[in-house]
């Protein structure tokens, strides 16, 4: 499960410089983590969200929300994070199609469930 592994990167000296992009979509950031570790997860996320104030030994950290629910939840419970809508994963397909190129194989991007 990726979330606990991501949070631990800062704790491992040889991995602390590894860049982390943490997209939050349809999950609880403390899922599968013992409740005694929730304060540590909160501190880690707050440090990553305020990454412009991080120490120089940590790699780049970026936390983004991929839907409006997480975007709202983060803003209310921790701090504001950028909203990067999940639909962005389909952009490559749309652009390729508009350029007349073969579109990469992904889910049906023309589905009525995909809203731009």
In brief:
The protein is an alpha+beta fold. It is built from four helices and two strands; from the N terminus they run αβαβαα. The chain has helices spanning 2-8, 38-49, 68-77, 91-98; strands at residues 20-24, 61-65.
Keywords, separated by commas or semicolons:
single chain, 116 residues, globular, two-stranded parallel ribbon, alpha+beta, 9% strand, 4 helices
Account of the protein in words:
This protein has four helices and two strands. The chain is an alpha+beta fold. Strands 1-2 form a two-stranded parallel ribbon. It is globular and about 50 Å long. The mean pLDDT is 74.
Number of strands: 2
Q: Whole-number average pLDDT? A: 74
Q: What is the alpha-carbon Rg in Å?
A: 17 Å
Low-confidence stretches: none
Instruction: Write down the secondary-structure element order.
Output: HEHEHH
Q: How much strand content do the residues show?
A: 5-15%
List the strand order in the largest sheet.
1-2
**What is the makeup of the main sheet?**
2 strands, parallel
**Spatial gap, N to C terminus:** 29 Å
In DSSP terms (H or I, runs of 4 or more residues), the helix count works out at 4
């Amino acid at each position: 499960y990726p979330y606990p592994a991501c949070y631990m990167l800062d704790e491992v000296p040889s991995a602390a410089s590894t860049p982390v992009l943490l997209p939050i979509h349809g999950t609880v950031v403390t899922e599968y983590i013992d409740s005694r570790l929730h304060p540590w997860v909160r501190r880690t996320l707050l440090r990553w969200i305020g990454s412009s104030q991080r120490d120089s030994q940590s790699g780049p950290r970026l936390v983004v929300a991929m839907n409006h629910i997480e975007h709202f939840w983060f803003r209310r419970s921790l701090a504001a994070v950028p909203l990067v809508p999940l639909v962005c994963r389909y952009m490559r397909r749309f652009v390729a199609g508009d350029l007349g190129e073969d579109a990469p194989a992904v889910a049906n991007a023309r589905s009525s469930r995909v809203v731009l």
